[in-house]
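User: I'm writing a tutorial on reading structure tokens. Could you give me a worked example: one chain, its sequence, then its tokens, then a sentence or two explaining what the tokens reveal?
Assistant: Sure. Here is the example chain.
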Amino acid sequence: MNKFTKKFGLLMASVAALFAAAVSPAEAALNSGVAAGFTALQTDALALVDLVWPVVIAVTVAFIILGLFKKAAAKAV
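And here are its predicted structure tokens:
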């Protein structure tokens, strides 16, 4: 590891620790309306993720097939 990587890793670990320490007390102070809003937002986000997975799989398979086709076409010429 070089010097930059060590410093960057230390910085990221520090930021993560600071964020975790700051979020825990703030989470306990949420009122019920905000908590319900975040729960609804999480539910909607998970529903969107469920809708996106088939598209991601189809695009990935299409790129794999395209790569195989290009490889076969290059060998045929």
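What the tokens reveal: The mean pLDDT is 84. DSSP finds two helices and no strands in the chain.
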